[in-house]
Amino acid sequence: MERLKDKIESWLAVAQSRLEDGGVTTSDLEQLKQMVAGAQAKQHLLYLHVKSPSIYSPVIGMAEHKPTPDGQDRIHTRQDWPYNNVHDAIVDGWYVIHFPQQMVPFDDRELDYVGYEFVLQKTEEVIS
After folding, report:
1. Fewer CB within 10 A of the terminal residue: the chain, N end or C end?
2. In whole angstroms, how large is the CA radius of gyration of the chain?
3. CA–CA dist 30, 32 (Å, integer)
4. 70 DSSP assignment
5. What angle do CA 30, 42, 97 make, to 5 degrees?
6. Nearest-5° angle of CA 80, CA 63, CA 87?
């Protein structure tokens, strides 16, 4: 799957060079129209487990779920976490769709919970 944004940026670079060499044609515009018409919004989910219910609390676990044909999810290791906290993810365009339960602090070694779980989503236009 190719991101619509990347495809349009590539098309614009070609169109700009064509403008300098004589102009963009009707078929060029039709190609752009078909690209946009063929795009689909895909939802990405990001599960962030943090030390407290604050969006500034450090991340202690992360899982990313992207819509791929093979259904492969990505569990990030500490070395490749793209975000240090929920706030960093929000700044990068993720939307919080689930906040953790606001329970009293607990020692997660005693329970089956891993920190406080935030669920975030991002949609991306792609061309199949």
Report:
1. C
2. 20
3. 5
4. T
5. 140
6. 75
Model-wide pTM > 0.90: no
pLDDT of residue 96: 96
Domain ranges in the chain?
2-37, 40-127
Residue from 54, 46, 42 nearest 94 by CA = 46
Q: How far apart are CA 27 and CA 19, in angstroms?
A: 14
CB atoms inside a 10 Å sphere around CB 26: 7
What are the tokens at 37? 């018409």
CB 44 within 8 A of CB 121: yes
C-alpha–C-alpha distance, residues 120 and 82, integer Å: 14
30/74 Cα distance (integer angstroms): 37
Number of Cβ within 10 Å of residue 90's Cβ equals: 15
* Cβ contact 122:94 at 8 Å: yes
Residues of the chain under the 70 pLDDT cut: 71-77, 102-114, 128
Of 47, 58, 44, nearest to 87 (Cα)? 58
